[in-house]
Every structure is written in structure tokens, then in C-alpha cells.
Amino acid sequence: MVRVVCLMLALIFSGVAAAEVADVYDFSDRAQEQRYQNLIAELRCPKCQNQNIADSNAPISKDMREAVYRMMKDGASNEEIVESLVGRFGEFVRYKPEFDSRTFLLWATPAIAVFGGVLVVAGVVIRSRRAGQDSPALSAEEKARVDKMLADEDKLS
Amino acid sequence: MKRFLLFLPLLIAVVVGIVLFAGIGKDPTKLESALVGKPVPEFSLRDLHNPDAMLDRSVFQGQVSLLNVWGTWCPACKDEHDDLMWLAEEKGVNIIGLNYKDNREDALVWLDRLGNPYRKTIYDPRGTLGFDLGVYGAPETFVIDAEGMVRFRHVGVVNETVWEQTLLPVINDVQGNG
What we know:
The complex is a heterodimer of chains A (157) and B (178). With 157 residues, chain A is mostly helical. Helices cover 68% and strands 0% of the residues of chain A. The longest helix of chain A is centred in the last third of the chain and has 31 residues, at 104-134. Chain A starts with a helix and ends with a helix. Chain B has 178 residues and is α/β, with parallel strands linked by helices. In chain B, 34% of the residues are buried. Chain B has six helices and seven strands. In chain B, a hairpin with a 6-residue loop joins strand 1 (45-47) and strand 2 (54-55). Chain B has helices spanning 2-6, 8-23, 75-90, 104-114, 128-132, 160-177; strands at residues 45-47, 54-55, 65-70, 95-100, 120-124, 140-144, 150-155. Chain B has a single domain, classed as Glutaredoxin (3-Layer(aba) Sandwich). The interface between A and B is medium-sized, with 15 and 16 residues.
């Protein structure tokens, strides 16, 4: 019985170990490995959306990581690698979409919002200034009263 | 002008509401294929039934076909199999199979037991053609025109509704143009 349990445990853990080493690639230096990590971090898994292919366990992500590694070994540039995957799986796999006519709004929305906000604030300020000049807070009559009050106060002190 | 400004928040809320409402019910897991309008990627893979024969892009030449990506490991493929049989037998649809990341014995047993709706089946055990096609989950069904161009991709099972509402209009369109 004990033997069976031991065997079971060994089997279970060997599976885990195998799963972990299955995805280890060799790199010539740290910079290459860092480049690979950056690439797979900014590519999105088409199956398990909202995960990058670095985090995803889906078979398709494994295939994509393999393709990234193979293309890196063949000396492809980052753009070539990303383009080749976009050519197969679509713009969707980019976490950083290109700036073009379709993604124009996506990239420009923050700038447009800030610009709109500045316009509104400027409008409010200008209008209140102009209103201040056209109709002063006190009419001439009121101003005379205030002057008189202040003069009285001066006398008292 | 002042009156109009008072209605501005309401207007913004209505516009945002319409945009968000339009998104309800859309399935974000269905992506349009990046290959639409492009030729099927080049490949040279074995025939599932005949290991000595190689298949390439020429299987798509001459007539509009459906390219159905399947595997025995895929439960949804079993669900759609009867509908594929129905399409092949009753509707005379030309279906090419892509046996994706599977093994030959299992695949042959499957076709033997459930019937074979495919005119030809491409055997792609390592998923290379699947990868080039951007397949991210079986079953997927592509509409390929008579020149071997990808015209449409459907992700998920094919059934009578999908056939009538999605695939048939695309095929009619493709045949009308070609």
C-alpha cells in the first residue's frame, strides 16, 4: 500500500516537473532572454483573452511562444516577429496596437479629452472675466455707500 | 444656448448608452480571421487516409469549399459532426477536413464510427497549418473560394442555424462574385 502511494506521489510530481521544464529555452545571453520575455509579455493570447502569452497555459500560447523563440533564433527583428503573428491571428494579439486610421481614436482619446477640458476651463475663465468687467459687483450707488461706511469706521477708531 | 448646455449631460449619457448597448450580446471570443482576403498559407501535409499522398493548396482549386478544423480531442467537434454529415450529404457541400494536433489512428476510428463528411482530410499532427491559419481553438470553419482565397472564418460549432444565417450567405456571395 505504501509503495503504491509512493508511486502515485512520484507520478503526480513528475508530471508537474515535466510540465515546468517543457517550456525552457536556451538563450545565448541575458539580453536575448530579456528580449524574449518582453516580446511574450506584449503579445496577447487569442484563446484566453486578457492574458498575455507569457502567462497563459493554453496550447496556442505555447505554440506562439515557440514561434517567437524560433524566429528569434533565426535572427528576426521584434517587428518581424510581431508582424508575423499579427498576420496569422490578427491585430488582436497586439497589446500595443499600431497607430493607424483604425486605432486613431483609441490613441487620441486621452489627448482629445484633455484638450476638451482645457477649452471648457478657458471658456469659464474668460466668460467670468468678461462678466466682471461688464457688470461690476457693486453699482455706483452701492460703492458710495460702502465708501461712506468705511469712512465712518475710520472715524470711530 | 444655456438651455442646450443643460441637456448636454443627458445627451452624453444617451450616446454612451447606445454605444455600450450595441456591445451587449457580442461574443468577444469570436475574432475575425487575419487571413480573410488572403490565400490559404502554403503547406505540404499528408492525407489522413493515405499517408503516402501529400496535399497542398491545390485541393482548394476549382470550387468553393469549407475548411473544417477538427480533432478527436475536441468535444465540440463531435457536436458538430452530424451537422457536417448533413451538409455533405444533403446539401452537397464540399468540405475539406484539417485534422489538427491529433493522431492518425484515433482520427480514422472517429471517421469510421461517425461517418466521413470530408472530400479530403489534411493530416496536421503538429498543428503547423493550423498555426499559419491562426486557428486558436477547434472547431473552426473557413470558407475558401475557388481560387484558394480565405473568405470567412467561423469559430465554434457549425449547425443548421450557423449554416443558414452565416455560412450560406457568405458562400452565395463568393459564388456570385466568382
